[in-house]
Specification:
Chain A has 22 helices and no strands. With about 550 residues, chain A is mainly α. The longest helix of chain A has about 50 residues. In chain A, helix 17 runs antiparallel to helix 18. Chain B has about 100 residues and is mainly α. Chain B has one domain. Helices cover about 85% and strands about 0% of the residues of chain B. Chain B contains 4 helices and no strands. The chains are: A mainly alpha (about 550), B mainly alpha (about 100).
Chain lengths: ~550, ~100
C-alpha cells in the first residue's frame, strides 16, 4: 500500500499538477488515536445539528445564482467580517501556531504578525474594488475587460489549484485531529468532514457557508479567549510573570523572547512574508467573501472587523503558547511515560488542547476539540464553494457555454462540482494520510501569491495589462512557484526521498511573484494586437465602476 | 451601464481630482504597512538581537513583544482611520459625482 501511495505521489508531483511548500506549523503532523471524549462528541453534535438546521433554512432561500455564490449580497459588514475571520483562521491557526509559540517562542509571534499583516493591505488597496468589480468569482474581475475565455480559464486554473491543495491539507489535518480528539478512525473522520462540507455547500450555498463561518468564528474567539483567560489568571494577568516563568521552564531559556533560527535566513524571511501577505490576497475563497456584501462601504467594514478578530486571536494564541510552556510543559501527565523531556501525548500540536484540559478540565477540552472540528468544517466549506464557482461559473458557464446558460443550469453544475470536489478531497485526504503534507500549505500560499494575486492586482490597477500578458504572467507564476517547491527540501528530500534538494529555498514567493509580474508586464507591453488596444481603452470605464460603484452588481431584491 | 455615462463621469474634473486624492490616500497607507512590516522582517533577518533586548534592566519581556503587539494594534487603527475618512468624505463626494453625471 505504501508503495502504491509513493508511486501515486511521484506521478502526482512530477506531472499532472504541481507541489510547493511553506512551513511546518500549519500542518498537524502525525497523531495517535485517543480515547473517546464524550464531552467533545456531545458539543460537536450540537454544532452539527445547528449548522444542518441553518443549511435547511438557507436552502429555502437559495434560488438564484446570486443567492448561491454571494448569499444574495445580503450579508452585513459585521457579519461578513466575522465570516472572513472564520474562513481565514483554520485549525492550524489554533493548534499549529500555539504549538509554534510553545516550541519556538518569539518565532511563532513573527508568524502571527505575517499572517495578520495582509489585512490592512487588502483594506487599503483591494476591498472596495473587489466589491465594485466582482460578481461571483475573482475571475470575474480579471476578465472584466480582458478575453473572457482565456483569462478566465487561467484564473479558474489558479483558483482550482489553490482550492484542491488547500482542501487536501485541511482534510489530512482534519483526519488526524479528529482521530486524536474524538477517537474516530482516520478514514471515517475524513469522510465525515467531506460529507458535511458537501451538504453545507450543495444545499445551503453561500448563505449556509457564511453562517457556518460566523458561528465558527464566535466559537473559536470565545473558546480561545476563555482558555487564555483561565491560563493567564494563574500568572495574575501579568505578562512579565508569565514570561519569566516560561523562560525558566523552557529548555530554550531567554531565546524564547527573541527571533530564533526559524527565520534567520533573510531570503526565507522576506519570501515567507511575501507569500503570507500576498498569498492571502489571492486566496479564492477569501476573495469570494467580498461579493456577499451589498456595497463597498460594507466591504470596508468587513475588513475592519476581520482585522480586529484575526489580530486579537493571534495575541490570544501567543499567550496560550507561552502559558502552555509553564502549565503543560512541566506536567508529566501530558507526556508519554510521564517524561517531560520526551514526546507529548498526542503529538506536537497538542499544547492548546492540553492547556484547555489543564485549566478547565475535560469539559473545556471537549469544547475546544469541538471548536477545532467546527473550524475545519467552516474552512473546507468556503474552499469547496470557491472551487465550485471556478468550475461552474468560470469554466462551464463562461468558457464552455460562452455565457449562454440559464442560472438554474449553472447552479446545478455548481452543486455537482461541489460534490465532485468533496469526493476528490476525501480521496486525497485518505491517500495522503501518511505523507508529510507540511509543504501543501506553503504551496497553496505560494501559488496564490504568484499566480492569482499578480493578475488580479494588475487587472485592477494597471491600464496596460492585456489578455496575453495576464495569461503568460499567471502561467509563469503558477509553474515557477510549483517547481520551486517540488525542487526544495520539503518535497524533493522529505517527500520524494532524494539526498539533497535541487533548490536551496523552500519559500517560493520572493522568486515566483516578481517573475509573474515581470512576464505579465513585458508580454503586455510587447502586445500590439488590435485586441490589446481595445482592452487598454476599456480600462477607463472599468476604473469608473471600480471607484464609484456605478454598475456594480447590486443586492438581491427579495 | 451605458458608456456615455461613464464618459461623462470621466470628463468631470472633480472625478479626476477625487480619484487622484483617493488613490494617494490608499497607497500612502498601504506603503506605511509595507514599510513597517518588511522593516520588521528585515530586523528579524539581519539584527534579531535588537528584538531580544530586555525591555528594561532585569526584565524578561523583550522589546520585541511590545513592538509586535504595537504593529498589530497600529495596523488595525490604520484600517479604522481609513474607513473613517472613506465613510465621511469619499462616499459623500462619490454620491455628488454620480449626481452630477445625471443619474
Amino acid at each position: 500500500m505504501s508503495r502504491l501511495i509513493a508511486m501515486f505521489v511521484a506521478v502526482f508531483a512530477a506531472g499532472l499538477w504541481v507541489v510547493p511548500a511553506f512551513a511546518a506549523p500549519a500542518s498537524l503532523g502525525e497523531t495517535q488515536q485517543q480515547a473517546v471524549n464524550p464531552n467533545a462528541i456531545i458539543m460537536f453534535l450540537i454544532f452539527v445539528g445547528a449548522t444542518l438546521g441553518i443549511t435547511y433554512w438557507a436552502s429555502k432561500r437559495t434560488k438564484t445564482a446570486s443567492d448561491f455564490y454571494a448569499a444574495g449580497r445580503g450579508i452585513s459588514g459585521t457579519q461578513n467580517g466575522l465570516a472572513i475571520a472564520g474562513d481565514y483562521m483554520s485549525a492550524a491557526t489554533l493548534l499549529g501556531l500555539t504549538s509554534l509559540v510553545y516550541t519556538r517562542g518569539y518565532d511563532g509571534f513573527i508568524y502571527c504578525i505575517a499572517f495578520y499583516s495582509c489585512w490592512p493591505f487588502i483594506m487599503f488597496v483591494m476591498a472596495e474594488r473587489l466589491r465594485n468589480l466582482g460578481k461571483f468569482t475573482f475571475a470575474d474581475i480579471v476578465s472584466y475587460r480582458l478575453d473572457q475565455k482565456r483569462v478566465r480559464t487561467m484564473a479558474a486554473i489558479g483558483s482550482l489549484t489553490v482550492v484542491v491543495f488547500y482542501l487536501t491539507a485541511q482534510m489530512v489535518g482534519a483526519g488526524q485531529l479528529i482521530k486524536l480528539l474524538f477517537g474516530l478512525p482516520y478514514w471515517s473522520a475524513v469522510a465525515l468532514v467531506g460529507v458535511l462540507m458537501v451538504i453545507y455547500v450543495t444545499f445551503g450555498g453561500m448563505i449556509a457557508t457564511t453562517w457556518v463561518q460566523i458561528i465558527k468564528a464566535c466559537l473559536l474567539l470565545g473558546g480561545g479567549t476563555l482558555v487564555m483567560l483561565l491560563a493567564f489568571s494563574q500568572f495574575g494577568f501579568s505578562f512579565e510573570a508569565l514570561a519569566t516563568q516560561a523562560v525558566a521552564a523552557s529548555s530554550s531559556g531567554m531565546k524564547l523572547m527573541g527571533p530564533g533560527t526559524l527565520l534567520s535566513d533573510p531570503v526565507t524571511a522576506v519570501s515567507l512574508g511575501l507569500g503570507l501577505m500576498f498569498g492571502t490576497a489571492g486566496l479564492p475563497h477569501i476573495l469570494m467573501r467580498f461579493f456577499t456584501v451589498p456595497n463597498a462601504r460594507a466591504a470596508r467594514k468587513s475588513v475592519f472587523v476581520a482585522t480586529f478578530c484575526v489580530g486579537f486571536f493571534f495575541c490570544v494564541v501567543c499567550i496560550m503558547g507561552l502559558a502552555a510552556i509553564v502549565i503543560v510543559g512541566q506536567n508529566p501527565a501530558f507526556f508519554e511515560g510521564g517524561n517531560i523531556a520526551g514526546k507529548m501525548i498526542g503529538g506536537g500540536n497538542m499544547p492548546a488542547m492540553h492547556l484547555a484540559k489543564a485549566v478547565g478540565g475535560n469539559l473545556l477540552l471537549g469544547f475546544l476539540a469541538a471548536v477545532a472540528f467546527a473550524t475545519i468544517l467552516a474552512v473546507v466549506a468556503g474552499l469547496a464553494l470557491a472551487g465550485a464557482g471556478a468550475i461552474a461559473h468560470d469554466l462551464y458557464a463562461s468558457v464552455i457555454k460562452g455565457g449562454k446558460v440559464t442560472e438554474a443550469a449553472e447552479v446545478r453544475v455548481s452543486r455537482l462540482s461541489s460534490l465532485a470536489l468533496g469526493l476528490v478531497a476525501v480521496l486525497f485526504g485518505i491517500l495522503f494520510e501518511k505523507l508529510n503534507i507540511a509543504f501543501l500549505v506553503g504551496l497553496t500560499f505560494g501559488i496564490a501569491a504568484s499566480c492569482n494575486f499578480p493578475i488580479l492586482i494588475l487587472s485592477m490597477y494597471w491600464k496596460g495589462l492585456t489578455t496575453r500578458g495576464a495569461v503568460w504572467g499567471g502561467i509563469v507564476g503558477l509553474v515557477s512557484a510549483t517547481a520551486i517547491v517540488i525542487f526544495s527540501k520539503a518535497v524533493w528530500v522529505t517527500v520524494l526521498g532524494n539526498a539533497a534538494p535541487l533548490f536551496p529555498y523552500e519559500q517560493p514567493a520572493i522568486f515566483s511573484m516578481p517573475a509573474a509580474f515581470f512576464v505579465a508586464w513585458i508580454v503586455s507591453v510587447l502586445d500590439k494586437s488590435p485586441r490589446a488596444a481595445r482592452e487598454i481603452a476599456a480600462y477607463d470605464d472599468q476604473m469608473v465602476r471600480a471607484q464609484t460603484g456605478l454598475g456594480a452588481a447590486g443586492a438581491a431584491s427579495h | 451601464m451605458s458608456s456615455e455615462i461613464y464618459k461623462r463621469i470621466q470628463n468631470n474634473p472633480r472625478y479626476q481630482e477625487e480619484m487622484a486624492k483617493r488613490s494617494r490616500f490608499s497607497w500612502t497607507l498601504a506603503a506605511i504597512v509595507l514599510v513597517v512590516f518588511y522593516g520588521f522582517i528585515l530586523v528579524v533577518a539581519f539584527a534579531p538581537h535588537l528584538l531580544a533586548t530586555p525591555l528594561s534592566e532585569g526584565s524578561t519581556t523583550s522589546v520585541g513583544i511590545p513592538i509586535g503587539v504595537g504593529i498589530i494594534v497600529f495596523f488595525w487603527l490604520l484600517t479604522g482611520y481609513f474607513i473613517h475618512r472613506a465613510n465621511k468624505e469619499f462616499d459623500a463626494t462619490n454620491i455628488e459625482i454620480l449626481r452630477e453625471a445625471d443619474l
